[in-house]
Structure formats: C-alpha cells, structure tokens
Amino acid sequence: MTTPDVNVAVIDFKTCKGREMVVPNEDGSYTILINSRLTYASQLEAYEHAIRHINNHDFEKSDVQSIEYSAHELPPAEEAPVPARQYIERIKKLQAEQRRIQRQIKKDQERVQFIMDNCNMFKRAEKQYLYGDDL
C-alpha cells in the first residue's frame, strides 16, 4: 500500500471551531489544515485523525456516519432505522407532560396569589421592610 503525498499547514481557524480539515487535491495528494489555536498535543491528535481518513480512503465513500464511526474507532451504528411512529409517540408524551406541567404552574401561581391577597403577613413584612420599627 502506498501512502499518498500529504501537505500539512497549521493555520488560524478564525471563524471555524474545527480541529482540522482535509482537502483532496487534483493531483491525488492531500492537504491537511490544522487549527493553530489547538495545543501541540491536540494538533498531533488532529493530524492523526486526518491521516486515518486518508488511509481509510474516506474521500471515496459517501456515508459520513460510517466514516466518522470508523475514524473515531466507534462501533458501527445500528443499521435499522428507528420507525417514525416511535418519534411521534415520544413527542405526544412530551407534549402531554408539558401540558400537565403548565396546569400545575397555573395552579401554583393561583395559590401564591391567593395567599398574597388574603394574608396580612406580606403587607406587614413590606411595611416593616420600608418603614422599620419607628411607626
């Protein structure tokens, strides 16, 4: 197996928070751009990550998820897609929970308002706070 030519440039990623970028060149070589804002150890990790992409021929593949799984040495993702019905059921449960919480908040607000309207303690506390014991 031959390793393609690789050019490496350490540059300042001013607007991008990425670690590295790999650019396949027209002549079959690659250019790795590494973020200069990283520590030296992180720059080495970014370089190794980019080299793994090059050595795995990831630029010839189209499935980004499987590429990143293999580059990060993670187990492959489940192949079977999750049915939309599961998402819809989860959304309905969350919406019902949200409605329950909103009802509870409204009840609690009404209870607090009732206490504030019918209890002299708040008025006395406010008077004490504003005027002290001098009255």
Describe the structure.
With 135 residues, this protein is of the alpha+beta class. It has 2 domains: 6-71, no CATH class; 84-131. It is 53% helix and 13% strand. It has helices at 40-55, 64-71, 84-118, 120-131, and strands spanning 6-11, 20-24, 30-35. It has a 3-stranded mixed β-sheet with strand order 1-3-2, covered by helices on one side. The longest helix is centred in the last third of the chain and has 35 residues, at 84-118. The radius of gyration is 30 Å and the shape is elongated. The mean pLDDT is 82.
Write the layout of secondary structure elements.
Elements: E1 6-11, E2 20-24, E3 30-35, H1 40-55, H2 64-71, H3 84-118, H4 120-131
Attribute tags:
single chain; 135 residues; alpha+beta; 2 domains; three-stranded mixed β-sheet; 4 helices; elongated
Task: State the gist of this model.
The chain is an alpha+beta fold. It is built from 4 helices and 3 strands.
Helix segment tally: 4
Biggest sheet details? 3 strands, mixed
Quote the beta fraction.
5-15%
Strand order of the largest sheet: 1-3-2
- Beta-strand segment tally: 3
Secondary-structure element string: EEEHHHH
- Integer count of domains: 2
Global shape: elongated
How far the N terminus sits from the C terminus, by CA atoms, comes to 94 Å
Low-confidence stretches: none
Helix content: 40-55%
- The overall average pLDDT, rounded, is 82
Instruction: Compute the CA-based radius of gyration.
Output: 30 Å
